[in-house]
Amino acid sequence: MTGSSSNARDRILTAANKLFYAEGIRAVSLDTIAAKAGITKKTVYYHFKSKDDLIEAYLISRDQPNLDLFRSWFDAAEGTLPDKVQAIFQNIAASARHPKWKGCGFLRTAAELANLPGHPAMKVGAAHKKKFEDWMAEEFRAANPEMAPDPANDLARHVVLLLDGTFSTILVHRDAAYAEAAGEAARVLVAGAVGRAS
Question: How many CA atoms lie within 13 A of 164 on its CB side?
Answer without folding.
Answer: 18
